[in-house]
């Protein structure tokens, strides 16, 4: 099996091993950006703002 790791991956693995609190901060910061739940009112607003798609996107108007 091929076990190549780039220098960047090696650096990150070593850094996280030396700084275990950083892994917790990464999870916390990830949650701020990606693990967001939208309430029903907010989702309805996004759905209402959508424009209908054209049948053929490259057709000139």
Number of strands: 0
Q: What is the 3D form?
A: elongated
Distance between the termini: 55 Å
Given helix and strand content, the structural type is mainly alpha
Major sheet details: none
The amount of beta strand, in percent, is under 5%
Helix and strand element order: HHH
Pfam family, one: DUF3460
Protein name: DUF3460 family protein
Organism: Conchiformibius kuhniae
InterPro entries: DUF3460
Question: Can you describe this structure?
Answer:
The protein has 61 residues and is mainly alpha-helical. The protein is built from 3 helices and no strands. It has a domain at 1-36. The longest helix is centred in the middle third of the chain and has 14 residues, at 20-33.
What's the short story on this structure?
With 61 residues, the protein is mainly α. It is 59% helix and 0% strand. The termini are far apart.
Supply the key terms:
61 residues; 3 helices; 0% strand; DUF3460
Topology:
Elements: H1 7-18, H2 20-33, H3 40-49
